[in-house]
Amino acid sequence: MDTSKTQIIAVVNEKGGVGKTVTVLNLGAALCLKGKKVLIVDMDPQFNATRGLGISPGKDGTSVYDIIKLPEPVPAQSVVLQTPWKRLDLIPSNADLSGFEVELANEQGRENRLNEVLAPIVDIYDFVLVDTPPSLSLLTVNVLTFASDILIPCQTHPYAYGAMDELVETISIIKDEINPDIRIMGVAATFFDRRTRVSNKILEDLRADKRFKGKLFDTVIRINTTIAESAYYGKPVVFFRPSSTGAADYLALADEILDRA
Ligand SMILES: Nc1ncnc2c1ncn2[C@@H]1O[C@H](COP(=O)(O)OP(=O)(O)O)[C@@H](O)[C@H]1O
Ligand SMILES: [Mg+2]
After folding, report:
1. What are the DSSP calls for 200-227, one per residue?
2. CATH number assigned to the domain comprising residue 76
3. What range defines the domain where residue 39 resides?
4. Which of 177, 190, 219, 238 could form a disulfide with 252, with the two C-beta atoms 3.0–4.6 Å apart?
């Protein structure tokens, strides 16, 4: 693989509460600690990734919505924010984004908006991590049109594992019809609790699942209450409490991704 090329990673799962936002924030933070230049793009109208970096989308604040909207989008560069952490930038979201689907319903090429506006500015980053809403909306399709790679967080819970069928189907449609070069870079087991039978069972199932052969990360993200606590303070846990298991897991995941690149 060409290591000089920006890796654009969509963190996707149509199910909510599986660790997408936490993965975007902490993988981004961990890669940045390892010297990489990272851009986080928040494509969820609920703007949890934005808040997770301590940034509150003020009513008048511009967001990713302003660069993809039509007509009269603003230049992409004008919505990029520096975070308190070196090498980590953010394109924030706000609630305006929820109107995008309806407003662009009749626009030609509406699935390509994010790609169109961001592709020219991503070169200065090593990694772009994109957070997505828990649905297969036009927003998620825009992310999958823009991305080079997909990272799927899968909660080690039966419902979450069951929901993977639909996700795999969706990704194959996107690959066939819109973005033939996109690939599933990996599946990360999240919310792992080794004391519970169900967590262990789902991890076993994921390891045996032929669809994800060679894709399941060795790193397993354990349940760690410090992760939720760090969200309260608007800091990725990797920065908030480097000694936590949450930080250790995401730093290990970052190492795996750097090894694979
Ligand atoms: N490994 C973890 N251990 C404990 N809590 C977690 C973990 N990962 C995520 N959380 C918490 O679970 C909730 C859902 O996670 P989140 O990343 O927001 O999921 P999603 O973006 O898929 O909806 C959040 O409150 C988050 O702080
Ligand atoms: Mg989320």
Report:
1. HHHHHHHHH-GGGTTTB-S---B--HHH
2. 3.40.50.300
3. 7-260
4. 219
What pTM did the predictor assign? 0.97
Q: Ligand 1: which atom is nearest the Cα of residue 22?
A: 17
DSSP states along 101-169? HHHTTT-TTGGGHHHHHHGGGGGG-SEEEEE--SS--HHHHHHHHH-SEEEEEEESSHHHHHTHHHHHH
Q: Is 57 in the pocket of ligand 1 (CB under 6 A)?
A: no
Residue nearest to atom 9 of ligand 1 (CA): 19
Confirm or reject: Cβ of 229 under 6 Å from ligand 1: no
How many structural domains compose the chain? 1
Place of tokens 């993965």: 23
Please indicate, yes or no, if residue 1 is contained in any of the structural domains: no
pLDDT digit string, tens, across residues 72-113:
999 999 999 999 999 999 999 999 999 999 999 999 999 999
